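[audit] Reproducing an earlier prediction to check determinism. Same input, same settings, fresh worker. If the C-alpha cells differ from the archived copy the diff job will pick it up downstream; this log only records the rerun itself.
[audit] input (169 residues):
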Amino acid sequence: MPSGARDAAISIHLLADLPHLIEPVGRIRWRQWGRPPEPVDPTWWIETTAREAGRDGLPITFVAVDGPGRAVGAAGLGEFDLAEIRDRSPWVLGMVVQADCRGWGVGRRLLTRIEDYAARHGYLDVWVATGGPAVRFYQRCGWWITETVRQASGEEATVLRKTVAGHPD
C-alpha cells in the first residue's frame, strides 16, 4: 500500500472511546515487551493498558486504528514512568506500533497527538525513557537526550525530553 494511502487509513482516538481495543493494545505491548525483566503475563499488559486508558486526566492513552478498525499502535501519557526519576512529569508510556505497520508514520502521529495533548493541558515539557532504535526515532521527532539512568533491574534507559509549550511571559 502506498504510504499516503496508509496514512489516510490511520486515525488516532482516545483509547477510552474504543474500550474494545484495550485488549488488542495490551497484547501488542506484551508482544513487544513481555519478557524479563518486564512482566511476561499478557494479562498484566492488558490490565495496565486498561488502567492507562483515562479520559479526563493522566494517565491517558491514544490508539492508532487502521481502516478496518484494527489497533495498530498506541501511546500513553502518565505522571511517572521510571521509579528512579520522580522529579519531572509527564512521561510517554507504552509507545508501540504493530511490527507490520512500522514505517507508516503511525508512531510520529501518536507522538504528535501526545505532545499536543500535553501542550493543551499546560505542560511545558514531556519526557520519555527508552532504549535501542527508539532513541533515534524520538530524536528524529525533535526530542533530545538528557541523561542515561540505570534502573533497579540493571537495565539502562535513555531519557529524552521535548518542550511542547512556550514558556509563559
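[audit] rerun output stored. Observation attached for the diff report: DSSP finds five helices and seven strands in the chain.
[audit] end
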